[in-house]
Structures are given as C-alpha cells and as structure tokens.
UniProtKB/TrEMBL annotation:
<dbReference type="InterPro" id="IPR015943">
    <property type="entry name" value="WD40/YVTN_repeat-like_dom_sf"/>
</dbReference>
<dbReference type="GO" id="GO:0043291">
    <property type="term" value="C:RAVE complex"/>
</dbReference>
<dbReference type="Pfam" id="PF00400">
    <property type="entry name" value="WD40"/>
</dbReference>
<dbReference type="InterPro" id="IPR001680">
    <property type="entry name" value="WD40_rpt"/>
</dbReference>
<dbReference type="InterPro" id="IPR036322">
    <property type="entry name" value="WD40_repeat_dom_sf"/>
</dbReference>
<keyword id="KW-0853">WD repeat</keyword>
<dbReference type="InterPro" id="IPR052208">
    <property type="entry name" value="DmX-like/RAVE_component"/>
</dbReference>
<feature type="repeat" description="WD">
    <location>
        <begin position="166"/>
        <end position="191"/>
    </location>
</feature>
<protein>
    <submittedName>
        <fullName>DMXL2 protein</fullName>
    </submittedName>
</protein>
<dbReference type="GO" id="GO:0007035">
    <property type="term" value="P:vacuolar acidification"/>
</dbReference>
Length: 191
C-alpha cells in the first residue's frame, strides 16, 4: 500500500508489475498515515485499509475490491485541521485518531458501526498544537499519543481518561513503538 504527497493511494502485489487498485487519485489531500487492519479475515471481516490525510479525514476501504477505483465504505472528517495518525482497535469497529483540531480535541475515539454524525465516542482535549503519533496497547487497553511540543499522553480507553502526561522531547514526537509484551514504549522526535 503506497500513499503520496499528491494524495494518491495505490495497492501493489509483489509478483505483479502493475498496481492492483488505485484507492485515491492524485489531487487529494496529502496522505499522512496508512494501515491495514490486522484483525481482518476473508470469512467474517474482510481485510481493510485506512488512510488519514492532511485535511483531517480518515477513509476506510475493503481491500478485496474488484473495481479499479473503489469508493471508501467510510470517510469522515476526524479533525478540523489534519489527521496525522490512527489505530484500528477491536476488529476495526473502534478507531482512534490523532491530529489537530481547532478545539484542541486532538485524540479521538470513533465507532465505525454508527452513522457518521454520531460516531465520535470520546474526544480528549490534549496536546497543544496537535497530536502527531498514536500507538495502541491492546493487552492493557491503553492509547499512547505524542504531540508537536514533545509531550506524551497515556489514556485508559475503558475509563476514557488521561492517566499520564509528561514531556519526553523538546520538539515534535515523530514515532512511537511498543514492545510485544507491552512493558515499554519508545519515542522518537524531530530533534
């Protein structure tokens, strides 16, 4: 799956020289993050891919499309300025997003099974100037976010509250990684 500054999103297969599908054409907002939903399977829930963009939108497609330019089955504006990252939670019915919004609701939880007008479950007011990255810890039901000012926030998804906030860097947090046992996480910054 590839995404570009010109907004295009294409899917390739290793053994084929041409693209399989073009999910978005050039001329859209720049792609900020893309993921496959790892919980997808062919029998019950088809494999999905999600694309966040620089205008605040998150779009989700079913991967097993037969058309060359399929439409997303979900597309909604999650943040008023940009959606920088997202995470599929609990077999894709719940999605977390990070980004920048005018009202500082920069980390949000969304339910994909309800109408787009009612899909926002909870919005956390955090990260002045926006949240840049997001990491989900499924064993502990925690969400970890990094912000433009170097701060890290740790959220309890079940209780929908911020547990910890601390400054990890002097500049924007650009990467988060979690070890498989969920004992540690690592941050990387613009500095």
């Amino acid at each position: 799956l590839t995404g570009a500054q010109d907004g295009s999103v294409r899917m390739f297969e290793w053994t084929r020289p041409q693209q399989l599908v073009c999910f978005r054409q050039a001329g859209n907002a720049r792609v900020t993050r893309m993921y496959f939903n790892s919980q997808g399977n062919k029998a019950i829930h088809p494999l999905q891919c999600g694309v966040a963009d620089g205008e605040g939108f998150l779009s989700i497609w079913q991967v097993n499309q037969t058309t060359s330019n399929p439409k997303p089955y979900l597309s909604w504006q999650c943040h008023s300025k940009t959606t920088s990252d997202f995470a599929f939670i609990t077999s894709s019915s719940l999605v977390a997003t990070s980004g920048q919004s005018n009202d500082n609701r920069n980390v949000c939880l969304w339910d994909t099974l309800v109408s787009s007008g009612n899909s926002l479950i909870h919005a956390f007011t955090c990260h002045d100037h926006g949240a840049t990255v997001l990491q989900y810890a499924p064993k502990h039901q925690l969400l970890i976010s990094g912000g433009r000012k170097g701060y890290i926030c740790v959220f309890d998804i079940r209780q929908r509250q911020i547990l910890y906030t601390f400054q990890a860097h002097e500049s924007a947090v650009k990467a988060l990684a979690l070890d498989p046992a969920e004992d540690y996480f690592v941050t990387g910054s613009a500095e």
